[in-house]
Protein backbone atom coordinates (compact mmCIF):
# COMPACT_ATOMS: atom_id res chain seq x y z
CA UNK A 1 0.00 0.00 0.00
CA UNK A 2 2.84 2.35 0.83
CA UNK A 3 4.34 1.67 -2.60
CA UNK A 4 1.23 2.98 -4.34
CA UNK A 5 1.15 6.04 -2.09
CA UNK A 6 4.80 6.84 -2.87
CA UNK A 7 4.17 6.48 -6.62
CA UNK A 8 1.12 8.78 -6.37
CA UNK A 9 3.14 11.45 -4.52
CA UNK A 10 5.93 11.24 -7.10
CA UNK A 11 3.44 11.58 -9.97
CA UNK A 12 1.77 14.60 -8.37
CA UNK A 13 5.14 16.26 -7.75
CA UNK A 14 6.20 15.61 -11.34
CA UNK A 15 2.99 17.12 -12.66
CA UNK A 16 3.45 20.18 -10.42
CA UNK A 17 6.97 20.83 -11.69
CA UNK A 18 5.85 20.39 -15.30
CA UNK A 19 7.02 16.95 -16.42
CA UNK A 20 5.18 15.90 -19.57
CA UNK A 21 2.62 13.13 -19.25
CA UNK A 22 4.32 11.01 -21.95
CA UNK A 23 7.44 10.77 -19.76
CA UNK A 24 5.34 9.65 -16.80
CA UNK A 25 3.66 7.02 -18.96
CA UNK A 26 7.05 5.79 -20.18
CA UNK A 27 8.32 5.66 -16.59
CA UNK A 28 5.24 3.70 -15.52
CA UNK A 29 5.76 1.22 -18.37
CA UNK A 30 9.43 0.83 -17.44
CA UNK A 31 8.54 0.29 -13.78
CA UNK A 32 5.91 -2.32 -14.70
CA UNK A 33 8.48 -4.08 -16.88
CA UNK A 34 11.02 -4.12 -14.07
CA UNK A 35 8.50 -5.49 -11.59
CA UNK A 36 7.49 -8.20 -14.11
CA UNK A 37 11.12 -9.13 -14.78
CA UNK A 38 11.94 -9.25 -11.07
CA UNK A 39 8.98 -11.52 -10.33
CA UNK A 40 9.96 -13.85 -13.17
CA UNK A 41 13.54 -14.04 -11.89
CA UNK A 42 12.27 -14.80 -8.40
CA UNK A 43 10.02 -17.59 -9.70
CA UNK A 44 12.93 -18.97 -11.74
CA UNK A 45 15.07 -19.01 -8.59
CA UNK A 46 12.41 -21.01 -6.75
CA UNK A 47 11.98 -23.33 -9.75
CA UNK A 48 15.70 -24.16 -9.74
CA UNK A 49 15.53 -24.76 -5.98
CA UNK A 50 12.55 -27.05 -6.59
CA UNK A 51 14.56 -29.10 -9.10
CA UNK A 52 17.15 -29.89 -6.41
CA UNK A 53 14.68 -30.82 -3.68
CA UNK A 54 13.72 -34.34 -2.61
CA UNK A 55 10.27 -35.89 -2.81
CA UNK A 56 8.63 -36.91 0.48
CA UNK A 57 5.25 -37.95 1.74
CA UNK A 58 3.88 -35.51 4.28
CA UNK A 59 0.76 -34.68 6.22
CA UNK A 60 -0.65 -31.16 6.41
CA UNK A 61 -0.52 -30.04 10.03
CA UNK A 62 -1.59 -26.40 10.34
CA UNK A 63 -1.61 -22.89 8.91
CA UNK A 64 0.37 -20.34 10.87
CA UNK A 65 2.64 -17.32 10.49
CA UNK A 66 5.83 -17.95 8.54
CA UNK A 67 9.09 -17.85 10.51
CA UNK A 68 10.60 -15.53 7.86
CA UNK A 69 7.71 -13.22 6.92
CA UNK A 70 4.38 -11.88 8.08
CA UNK A 71 2.38 -14.12 5.72
CA UNK A 72 0.57 -17.24 6.82
CA UNK A 73 1.92 -20.48 5.38
CA UNK A 74 0.93 -24.12 5.46
CA UNK A 75 3.01 -26.43 7.63
CA UNK A 76 3.64 -30.06 6.71
CA UNK A 77 4.92 -32.88 8.92
CA UNK A 78 7.58 -35.23 7.54
CA UNK A 79 8.93 -37.92 9.87
CA UNK A 80 7.79 -36.12 13.05
CA UNK A 81 9.36 -32.81 11.92
CA UNK A 82 7.28 -29.84 10.84
CA UNK A 83 8.34 -27.70 7.85
CA UNK A 84 6.77 -24.50 6.50
CA UNK A 85 5.77 -24.13 2.88
CA UNK A 86 7.85 -21.79 0.76
CA UNK A 87 4.89 -19.68 -0.46
CA UNK A 88 1.96 -18.16 1.46
CA UNK A 89 -1.18 -20.25 1.85
CA UNK A 90 -4.24 -19.89 -0.33
CA UNK A 91 -6.89 -17.94 1.56
CA UNK A 92 -9.80 -19.19 -0.52
CA UNK A 93 -10.93 -22.81 -0.34
CA UNK A 94 -8.59 -23.46 2.58
CA UNK A 95 -10.57 -26.51 3.66
CA UNK A 96 -10.44 -27.98 0.14
CA UNK A 97 -6.74 -27.30 -0.52
CA UNK A 98 -5.21 -28.26 2.81
CA UNK A 99 -6.46 -31.53 4.24
CA UNK A 100 -4.88 -33.30 7.17
CA UNK A 101 -6.76 -36.53 6.64
CA UNK A 102 -4.51 -37.76 3.84
CA UNK A 103 -0.85 -37.80 2.89
CA UNK A 104 0.36 -35.54 0.15
CA UNK A 105 3.57 -35.32 -1.83
CA UNK A 106 5.86 -32.42 -1.01
CA UNK A 107 9.41 -31.57 -1.99
CA UNK A 108 11.82 -30.89 0.87
CA UNK A 109 14.64 -28.47 0.08
CA UNK A 110 18.25 -29.46 0.39
CA UNK A 111 18.83 -27.36 3.51
CA UNK A 112 15.62 -28.76 5.04
CA UNK A 113 14.19 -25.34 5.88
CA UNK A 114 10.95 -25.48 3.89
CA UNK A 115 8.85 -27.57 1.51
CA UNK A 116 7.13 -27.11 -1.82
CA UNK A 117 3.57 -28.44 -1.88
CA UNK A 118 1.63 -29.07 -5.09
CA UNK A 119 0.46 -25.45 -5.26
CA UNK A 120 4.01 -24.14 -4.89
CA UNK A 121 5.19 -26.54 -7.59
CA UNK A 122 2.47 -25.30 -9.93
CA UNK A 123 3.34 -21.65 -9.19
CA UNK A 124 7.04 -22.19 -9.88
CA UNK A 125 6.42 -24.20 -13.05
CA UNK A 126 3.95 -21.69 -14.48
CA UNK A 127 6.34 -18.84 -13.62
CA UNK A 128 9.17 -20.65 -15.38
CA UNK A 129 7.00 -21.18 -18.46
CA UNK A 130 6.06 -17.49 -18.46
CA UNK A 131 9.76 -16.63 -18.36
CA UNK A 132 10.38 -18.75 -21.46
CA UNK A 133 7.37 -17.22 -23.23
CA UNK A 134 8.45 -13.69 -22.30
CA UNK A 135 12.01 -14.28 -23.48
CA UNK A 136 10.72 -15.71 -26.78
CA UNK A 137 8.41 -12.72 -27.25
CA UNK A 138 11.21 -10.25 -26.58
CA UNK A 139 13.48 -12.02 -29.07
CA UNK A 140 10.75 -12.05 -31.73
CA UNK A 141 9.85 -8.37 -31.16
CA UNK A 142 13.46 -7.18 -31.16
CA UNK A 143 14.37 -9.07 -34.33
Helix fraction by DSSP (H/I, runs of at least 4):
40-55%
Count all strands and give the number: 5
Arithmetic mean of pLDDT: 88
Structural class category: alpha+beta
Unreliable stretches, pLDDT < 50, 5 or more residues?
none
Q: Beta-sheet strand percentage?
A: 15-25%
Quaternary arrangement of the chains shown? single chain
Distance between the termini: 38 Å
Widest sheet: strand order?
3-2-1-4-5
Structure keywords:
4 helices; alpha+beta; elongated; 143 residues
List the topology elements.
Blueprint: H1 2-17, H2 21-51, E1 54-65, E2 72-78, E3 81-84, H3 94-97, E4 103-108, E5 115-116, H4 118-142
Antiparallel strand pairs: 1-2, 1-4, 2-3, 4-5
Helix pairs in contact: 2-4
Would you write up a description of this structure?
The protein is 53% helix and 22% strand. It has a 5-stranded antiparallel β-sheet. Helix 2 packs across helix 4. The relative contact order is 0.14.
Quick overview of this protein structure:
The chain has 143 residues and is of the alpha+beta class. It has helices spanning 2-17, 21-51, 94-97, 118-142, and strands spanning 54-65, 72-78, 81-84, 103-108, 115-116.
